[in-house]
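Duplicate of earlier report; DUF3299 domain-containing protein input re-posted below.
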Amino acid sequence: MLKFLSLSVLLLGATVAHAERGMLDWADLIDEAAQSYEDPYRDLSAEQLTALVEVARMQSQLTATSDDDQRSELGQRLSDAKTALAEDGVDADWLISQRWVAAERRRNAAWAGDADVDGQIVTLGGYVIPAPADQDGVATVYLVPERGMCSHVPPPPPNQMVRVRLNSDWRPQTIYEPVRLTGQIAVVPTEREVVVVDGPVRMQAAFTMEATKVEPLAFAGAMSAGGKAWVEKMTQQLRDKEGDGLNED
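Output:
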């Protein structure tokens, strides 16, 4: 009987440990395995990306026009641009053919949430963006890593945004109010449009949380180290978006 009780206590302890993950960093939400993928645009310089986008645009214009003079001019400019890229070792036609493949890989990486946190009771700090209540009347917000995201700077990747249902009496008094939330988090992707500051923003979140505890935090006078790292990453994010510009037909 004692052995049975001891085993029961051990199993119960293991279950509680699994269910209560505790304090998370934002990096804990990312499925790191999904971040390693082949991106043919990654090593291109800004100038090469710009030239590649121009080639894609000229190809589209060449297809659309029937004017012989325009076609001749565009054809020559297109040939010159491809030759210049080829001299840099860049195969423009092949790269343009890979645009949808690369876009899908980036999307998958951006949405990939760490399955290890799915269903866990966690605590996560960040900044809230008020959102409309759910159909059942429960108040909702979005939690993001830094102030200004989705308005002053682009939204974070979906795996760095949490859609939160507030199962408490607390409500945000302003946008980007700093808080620490505790509740059950789940890898449940959602998309909806929310008005943020100057207009509607497509909010794409890889996670949802049923928050049962809210701890308001004091506003920090300076951006955190995580925020600075995020800003530094924005250059690469925008550079990647230039590659997405090749999707124009």
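Helices lie at 2-19, 46-64, 68-87, 92-97, 99-111, 225-244.

Merging into the original ticket.
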